[in-house]
Amino acid sequence: MKYHSACGPPLHICQTMLTNFDSPFFFFPLFALFLKSKEIDEHQKGHRLRRGKRKNMVEVPRNFRLLEELEHGEKGQGNPMVSVGLRDSDDILLRYWNGTIIGPPGTAFENRILCLDIYCDENYPKAPPTLKFSSKVNLPCVTDKGVVDTSRLFRQWDRRVTMEGCLLELRKEMANPANKRLPQPAEGTNY
Q1: Which residue numbers in the chain have pLDDT < 70?
Q2: Full-prediction pTM beyond 0.70?
Q3: Residues 34, 67 within the same domain
Q4: Domain count, the chain
Q5: Which letter does DSSP use for residue 190 in this model?
């Protein structure tokens, strides 16, 4: 009997091979599956090696990324010490956000709730968002108008950093030994 090698034997021959233990072809289908899986593994390994040399990654579109961050924030899945949410639900471009940081314990920021305005332009996440404190704060990476200098916060921007990650980095900056005892403006004062 002849059959096409790519398609394998017809069904009735496979059933005979699998039910007849004396048949020399009993183990053939299992062995063929084993060989096929080895070919797939070798192909994937080669693909992984080639992919590792590429510098370009697949980029998630801006709006998908922002919708993911919105869902993450609304469900409260992140760190409970920071939160991010869309300022206006009618903002279809997902540009204007609110951020909140609860000050780290053992610092001058302890028991303070610090509010920020976050602006994500069309370059986010390729470029960092614009962060501006609405609560007055004294930090080396914050200007006298409350704008966060992200170049001082991040040596080199990584597109994988989320808005929540930015707020966590600010919180870490507050807990930094050089900053944790800095004199702070009176609580409740705004820019």
Answers
A1: 1-57
A2: no
A3: no
A4: 2
A5: B
Residue 40, both tokens: 């797939």
Query: Residue 117 belongs to what domain range?
Result: 62-175
Q: Residue holding tokens 């790519």?
A: 6
pLDDT of amino acid 56: 62
Map residue 44 onto helix, strand or coil. helix
Of 139, 89, 131, the C-alpha closest to 109 is: 139
- How many of the other CB atoms lie within 10 Å of CB of 6? 5
Residue 132's DSSP bridge partners are 117, 147
- Cβ-in-10-Å burial (0-12, 13-18, 19+) of 26 comes to middle
3-class secondary structure for 115-182? EEEEECCCCCCCCCCEEEECECCCCCCECCCCEECHHHHCCCCCCCCCHHHHHHHHHHHHHCCCCCCC
- One domain, residues 46 and 66: no
120-150 pLDDT, tens digit each: 999 999 999 999 999 999 999 999 999 999 9
Distance CA 130, CA 37 (A): 49
- Residues 69, 15, single domain; the answer is no
Q: Is 40 in the same domain as 67?
A: no
Residues 145 and 74 reside in one and the same domain: yes
d(CA 66, CA 41): 35
CB of 137 closer than 8 Å to CB of 145: no
